[in-house]
Amino acid sequence: MTVQDVAPLPDTAFGARFRLWRHRDASVRELPDAHLGDLPIGPDAAGQARQAYELGARFVSVEPVADLGPDGDPGQTVAVLSLVRELTSHGMEVDWRARLAPDGPEWWVFGHLFPPSVLDGPGGAEALVAWRAKYHVGRCFLRRGPGFVQIRDRRQGGFRRLTISDGTYLAAIDALLSGHGTDGVPEPVLAAFLKQRLAVRFGGEVWWAPYRLQRWPLPSWEV
Question: What is the rounded CA–CA span in Å between residue 205 and residue 179?
Fold first, then answer.
């Protein structure tokens, strides 16, 4: 099955695309049928990642640079980061590029995502070495139980486990994770997520960091 066999998902305003491949190895990608097609980056990151995985993609190349500072296009940055987050949750390898900024978040805020191929900006080369060395699937993810969400966060050194059962916070997580924006999210709730670096603000947009782990590569005692 290829992209041409399924209905495409909606495009975004900036027209960026991502490419789907069966394998990460460059020599394999030269083989017939290794390239599954291209898709526009749309608003439903979870749906697009699921579609990519079901098509057989295990390596995805994302076109635009994610600017992790205040001077980029907030909509584009959030769309790219959301797609990378969801692809990571399926255990796929992602070829993407990011740019740090002196007045932007530190690299570790994004360190649970599959490491970028290129990390520009101040200290980018050193940060990328650390990112690759520390990366493993499950560095910051959430899982749902009856009436609660538990977030497990290993991005910055130690281990944090947060259990959230308040209905207002749960509704906010659903809204942010689905990409519906901050409309309807109470400011104190959003402020709490921003303080914990579970959400990141880019201009007028907010990106939710933890992903729903779709595949379980870790021993059961770790999850």
Answer: 10
